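ok new one. same drill as before - structure tokens go in, u give me an amino acid for every spot. 502 of them this time. try not to just spam alanines like last time pls lmao
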């Protein structure tokens, strides 16, 4: 929209129907509202992939970098970041359970100086920009890369539970079959859910570690404890049950604590080879012991993001064939978002149109629960690698979008701006602040032809917005489940009259 020339002063007046909301919205019901789409981007902290760019940067530098990420996400109309807060039994937030991450301060256990809490900062600043913050945890990885356990802080889980901490390749991995390890992951996650105003909890594809040829995962003694205690499952089934138990427990725990906090997982994109027929590749069911199809079918997640890091055309790992298969598994109508590797445009020299075509294909399936995507990872958009940010802005995410509604996360119906207090002053629309605690965002629409286009997402504490021209506008309250209230609709004209919509 183009802002009016300040020299062209116009007197605005407004008449708002004060009867019922239904009368108030009138012919809005006959119009089309902008579509919903989850637009996420992973922000990886492990090995300082995306943020902070150096573990030796000071607090002000780290804050500036994080604000740059959030501003870029808003500019490109992303509506969520997936922020890695526990890469390896550590914390990029203030925890009494686990040590501060070395990726943040250069040494595990060292407090940021000057002190700040990166997660609290990310949540507050993300929400100001209408961006959801999903916290990304790695449940079992205890150490990434070739570093000895001597560098671990004294309260690190590998130090606390050394009998269940195994050096496997260049990493240290905790035993998913140990109850204390499961409890640690659960307690860490619930601590964050209870103390921070986050929007989601997120796991990636790391469960049992990716296998190393000739080296089995060394959990023989834990499995022996299970069988001597009367267990009858095979080793493989027992491992899958260990992961299933934690997934189900975390989902239930989140819903008891804060039902509106979403739980999502981004598993390896192939559940098992030949699913669907003709697909070849890594078997995550038998190698990572991740029965991701079961989690989706049982409704133990609110959304699943299979990592579909392949092109559309090759039949052995076809993006579209796999996406269709995953959609078919959502028996509980949970959302499926396509995990996409934006970095392949740089690393594998994919054409930008490949990512564009994948988003187009996903959107074509929106009626069948393909409701968005998450891109890996933020640095490619921050740096505009091979022009990818420009491409998204011009061709894919030209306008803002609300996240899809999750109907099973029942909350109170959002309120609508009080019509008796919705006014126009100069070029500014002004309404009452929400005091119910229900509103997460305000969505502002402009009617163009017969379509209500979303033009802005506003922070819940915002009560003003400058309009750019005469026309019909609608303001709707949005809650944490992404449900919108009925709209308060106004028709703004020059001096000479106002129009009641409806």
């Amino acid at each position: 929209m183009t802002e009016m020339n300040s020299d062209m002063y116009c007197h605005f007046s407004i008449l708002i129907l004060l009867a019922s909301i239904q009368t108030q919205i009138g012919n809005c019901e006959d119009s089309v509202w902008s579509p919903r789409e989850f637009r996420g981007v992973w922000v990886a902290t492990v090995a300082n992939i995306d943020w902070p760019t150096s573990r030796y940067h000071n607090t002000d530098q780290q804050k500036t970098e994080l604000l740059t990420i959030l501003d870029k996400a808003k500019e490109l109309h992303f509506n969520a970041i997936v922020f890695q807060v526990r890469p390896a039994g550590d914390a990029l937030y203030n925890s009494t359970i686990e040590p501060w991450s070395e990726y943040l301060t250069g040494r595990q256990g060292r407090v940021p100086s000057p002190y700040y809490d990166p997660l609290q900062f990310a949540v507050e600043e993300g929400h100001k920009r209408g961006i959801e913050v999903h916290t990304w945890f790695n449940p079992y990885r205890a150490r990434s890369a070739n570093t000895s356990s001597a560098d671990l802080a004294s309260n690190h889980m590998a130090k606390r539970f050394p009998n269940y901490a195994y050096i496997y390749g260049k990493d240290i991995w905790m035993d998913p079959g140990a109850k204390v390890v499961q409890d640690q992951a659960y307690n860490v996650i619930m601590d964050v859910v209870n103390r921070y105003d986050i929007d989601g909890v997120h796991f990636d594809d790391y469960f049992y570690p990716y296998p190393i040829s000739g080296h089995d995962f060394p959990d023989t003694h834990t499995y022996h404890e299970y069988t001597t205690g009367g267990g009858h499952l095979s080793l493989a089934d027992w491992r899958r049950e260990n992961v299933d138990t934690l997934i189900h427990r975390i989902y239930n725990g989140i819903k008891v604590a804060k039902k509106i906090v979403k739980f999502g997982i981004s598993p390896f994109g192939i559940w098992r080879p030949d699913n669907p027929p003709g697909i070849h590749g890594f078997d995550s069911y038998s190698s990572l012991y991740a029965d991701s199809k079961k989690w989706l079918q049982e409704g133990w997640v609110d959304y699943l993001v299979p990592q579909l890091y392949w092109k559309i055309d090759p039949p052995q790992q076809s993006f579209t064939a796999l996406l269709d298969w995953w959609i078919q598994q959502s028996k509980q109508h949970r959302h499926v978002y396509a995990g996409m590797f934006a970095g392949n445009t740089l690393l594998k020299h994919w054409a930008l149109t490949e990512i564009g075509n994948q988003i187009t294909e996903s959107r074509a399936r929106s009626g069948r629960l393909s409701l968005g995507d998450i891109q890996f990872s933020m640095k490619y958009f921050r740096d505009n690698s091979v022009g990818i940010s420009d491409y998204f802005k011009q061709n894919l995410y030209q306008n803002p979008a609300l996240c899809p509604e999750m109907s099973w996360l029942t909350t109170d119906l959002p309120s609508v701006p009080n019509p008796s207090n919705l006014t126009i002053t100069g070029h500014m629309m002004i309404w009452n602040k929400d005091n119910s605690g229900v509103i997460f965002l305000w969505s502002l629409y402009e009617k163009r032809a017969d379509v209500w286009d979303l033009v802005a997402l506003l922070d819940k504490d915002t009560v003003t917005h400058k309009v750019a021209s005469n026309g019909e506008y609608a303001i709707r309250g949005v809650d944490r489940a992404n449900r919108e209230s009925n709209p308060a609709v106004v028709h703004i004209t020059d001096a000479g009259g106002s129009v009641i919509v409806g």
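The first helix runs from residue 21 to 25. and btw Residues 1-27, 496-502 have pLDDT under 50 and may be disordered.
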